[in-house]
Design goal:
alpha/beta; six-stranded mixed beta sheet; 11 helices; globular
Length: 227
Amino acid sequence: MTDTRVSFSDLRTAAYCARKCYYERTRDDVNREPPPEVERVRDLEPRYEALLEAPPDDLAAEPIARSPTQYRDRLAATRRRLEDAGQWDRLRNPRDREVLATGRDCRGIVHKVLADPLEPVVVSPGEPPDNGVWRSQSVHAVAAAKALAWEHQEPVERAWLEYPAAGVIRSVRMTTRRKAQYRSALRAVRELDGPPSRTNNRSKCESCEFAAECGVKTRTVRSLLGL
């Protein structure tokens, strides 16, 4: 029997751009393993305490997205906020790490699993928006929560997004809107029998490796300057 479960990565990509997801799924030469720099950023997460004590020159050699001073201040503020909320120790000492979770409709690796209550943590190599989390990462978080809930047969009401390079940790509630975005991404992946419509947000195309194949016209810095 064919497994129809959708991977977390496909859901995340479809929420960002369904057409990119189509190319990734249909091209044999696409390397879907995370690049080394992603693992370097994720490796910051177990070392928060050491990073807070590290001298500036050592911090500058790490894959952080801020200056050493800014990074230390941001991470220290994150720790204070989560300690006040009684969440820091839970996030630093999860019940499990790197767990393959399989739900009714999706499956993938949950970077950390918290207990009492059951909650997933997604560790992102990028930077967060000014407020909240990116839509694609929200879909990823909901997928992880649903997979854990299915496996453990208990409700999961919240997930967490960690951005180690920025020293930021944010919680994600399983709202009706977020669940609807997840269902939309799930439906988009399952209906990929041909290239979907191109995204209207051309800023997403600037760094996309499929831009030429997709046929979008992106504007280079030279063209913007009239050169």
